[in-house]
Write a structure and sequence with these properties.
Layout lengths: L7 H15 L10 H16 L9 H19 L4 H6 L11 H15 L5 H30 L19 H25 L7 H19 L3 H20 L8 H16 L1 H8 L11 H12 L11 H7 L4 H6 L12 H34 L2 H20 L7 H15 L22 H21 L1 H8 L4 H10 L4 H17 L4 H18 L4 H14 L1 H14 L4 H13 L3 H14 L4 H16 L1
Helix pairs in contact: 1-2, 1-6, 1-17, 2-5, 2-18, 3-15, 5-17, 6-7, 6-8, 7-8, 7-9, 7-16, 7-17, 8-10, 9-10, 9-16, 15-16, 16-17, 19-20, 20-21, 21-22, 21-23, 22-23, 23-24, 24-25, 25-26, 26-27
Length: about 600
């Protein structure tokens, strides 16, 4: 069913939303998050001009307002209030990303709500499903190229993640696409049958194959489990809802094909059976959750503010973390959406989130019960996608690629019929009291998009700066994103690496790195990564101050063997051989299997004997 000509803005928005999940920035340092947020905001702007098919219920607005207030209080009470309010690298889940997520729920209600014109609603759903199908084709195609050993998007990762940058994100996005497409195909089968001459149905089939390829080729066990959950929900609701004798057939076929394909793909088979060399993933979740809970229970009532949990965990990792993972991996997420919500806003935010989920489930059930056969297929597919993604986020991280489609679907499920006064972009005349809303909203979206575009552009000079420590390029990145302390801190880390490598410009790079690290730490004093960059850079500029700084670092991170090693080297540099030997021996006690540490102890013992 073709969309009415007057619905062009809705069509643009419904194409842009799936596109936002797969867009990226070629040549950028961090290519995946900000471009997706930018395209999502443009989609929201298009939705503003589309006739309203629904609106958000009042209970959702109350939950959103109360949740925002809780987050604001937690942010202001955190160690890094400004950074917590704005959002931290790499996902910027503060003012940068969270309003985008809220706006996607609004867009889902406005574009895909119950409406007053059934033909318009059906046409919009068809546009959205076709857009998803084409994006699924792109996602699966790039995943297939990567599985074949090609790298259309440069990456040195074993599982590069297709158009999402993360293998698990690739899988969960594929699951979302698959759930929607299976629901659409099941509805077509029950209503019209499957015809090979129907080009639109063929597009859905090809999209489903692309989505399934994305899930299987990701080698993500969480993604495979989420796919099974989505298909079980689709089959179970279809059977229990008496949608027809074949309602379970396609979901069962998807599960069967996925299982066989998973066993045929070597890396996926190895991950599923536990025989692959790359086994980090679900097996390390208990370690992550244990360290997160150890710091979360210290502030369970308020949390650490958005992204503040990462700094708290970074300075309090268990000895098991250093034994299993080491000191060089920063944990920027608890890999569990409940712990993430708890860490961001405490128990109050968790309670609010649970209330919102319960009310949303009730609203979805009411919509399903009152819908016709085609509407039930749509609601079932949307609900299956949301449930599967939530299940996947119990062991994964949140990101725009994963969240965009489920948030839009959730908005559609909870939407109330549009009130006449809320149709800001309808063909009817606007009331004088609301005539200012559309230009004000569009002006806000334009400013919003400009800020995100500028922030996204900063990734290009930062990428140049990473390639050899180009100070001018790194300064340009900071100028384009002045609100982001992590851009400054990450630039300090780049120059600290240049300093540590030595060479003619090491001292100059080190001085600049110290300045930038100090600036970053003034806004995010709990960042272990920025503090380590400062300490490394200080080695090349002021050895005496460096030794004292490493001592402070050793007290802050008593289980970090690398800090103990650097402290020992700094003490040796200023001639404190005995203190260096003691610190080197402590490093060996923390990492007894590290041959470099044993060699350091031997060298310091020889120097001590000579002196």
């Amino acid at each position: 069913m073709a969309a009415p000509a007057r619905d062009a803005w809705a069509t643009r928005a419904l194409w842009l939303i799936p596109l936002a999940t797969v867009v990226f920035l070629p040549g950028g340092s961090s290519r995946w998050v900000l471009p997706k947020l930018l395209v999502a905001v443009v989609a929201v702007g298009c939705a503003l001009l589309a006739p309203a098919a629904g609106r958000l219920p009042r209970w959702w607005l109350w939950c959103l307002g109360l949740g925002s207030a809780v987050l604001l209080v937690a942010s202001l009470a955190s160690e890094s209030p400004v950074a917590a309010v704005v959002g931290r690298w790499p996902r910027y889940e503060g003012l940068v990303a969270v309003p985008v997520y809220a706006a996607l729920v609004w867009a889902g209600a406005r574009l895909l709500g119950p409406g007053v014109d059934r033909r318009l609603v059906m046409a919009r759903r068809g546009v959205f499903v076709r857009a998803i199908a084409w994006c699924a084709v792109a996602l699966g195609f790039v995943a297939a190229l990567e599985a074949a050993g090609l790298r259309p998007i440069s990456s040195d990762a074993l599982r590069p993640g297709s158009l999402t940058g993360s293998a698990t994100d690739q899988a969960l996005l594929g699951v979302t696409f698959a759930a929607v497409l299976v629901g659409a195909l099941s509805a077509r089968a029950s209503l019209d049958g499957w015809s090979p001459r129907d080009s639109r149905t063929l597009v859905l089939w090809v999209g489903l194959l692309g989505a399934l390829a994305a899930v299987v080729l990701s080698a993500s066990r969480a993604g495979l489990a989420a796919l099974a959950i989505a298909m079980v929900v689709l089959a179970a609701v279809g059977v229990l809802g008496r949608s027809g004798p074949r309602s379970w057939l396609l979901p069962a076929l998807v599960v069967g094909v996925g299982a066989v394909a998973a066993l045929l793909v070597p890396l996926t088979r190895g991950r599923v059976l536990g025989t692959a060399d790359l086994q980090a993933g679900l097996s390390d979740r208990p370690l992550i959750w244990g360290d997160v809970w150890a710091v979360l229970r210290e502030q369970w009532w308020l949390g650490w503010g958005p992204s503040g949990l990462a700094d708290a965990v970074g300075s309090a990792h268990s000895q098991e973390w250093y034994d299993e993972v080491g000191p060089f991996m920063a944990l920027d997420s608890p890999h569990n959406v409940v712990l993430q919500v708890w860490g961001a806003g405490g128990v109050a935010l968790v309670v609010l989130a649970l209330v919102a989920v319960g009310l949303a489930a009730r609203a979805g059930w009411r919509v399903w019960r009152e819908a016709d056969a085609d509407g039930r297929a749509w609601v079932t597919a949307a609900g299956a996608a949301v449930v599967a993604v939530v299940a996947g986020l119990m062991v994964s991280v949140t990101s725009p690629a994963v969240l965009a489609i489920p948030l839009v679907l959730a908005g559609a499920l909870i939407a109330a019929p549009p009130a006449h006064a809320d149709r800001l972009a309808s063909d009817s005349a606007e009331t004088p009291t609301r005539a200012w809303l559309r230009p004000a909203a569009w002006a806000s979206v334009a400013v919003w998009a400009f800020v995100l575009a500028t922030a996204t552009a900063a990734e290009l000079p930062f990428a140049r700066g990473e390639q050899g420590g180009d100070v001018a390029a790194l300064e340009t990145a900071q100028t384009l994103r002045p609100w982001d302390s992590d851009t400054t801190g990450n630039a300090a880390q780049v120059l600290a690496g240049v300093t540590d490598a030595g060479g003619p410009g090491a001292a100059t790079a080190g001085a600049t790195a110290v300045t930038w690290a100090d600036a970053a730490l003034s806004r995010t004093p709990g960042s272990v990564e920025h503090a380590k960059a400062r300490a490394v850079a200080l080695d090349a500029t002021d050895p005496v101050a460096a030794a004292a700084n490493w001592e402070t670092m050793a007290e802050w991170l008593p289980r970090d063997w690398w800090v103990a090693q650097r402290h020992a080297l700094a003490l040796a540099t200023v001639g404190e051989t005995d203190g260096a030997l003691l610190e080197a021996e402590r490093a060996v006690a923390l990492a007894p299997d590290n041959a470099d540490l044993a060699d350091l102890v031997a060298a310091l013992e020889a120097r001590s004997a000579v002196s």
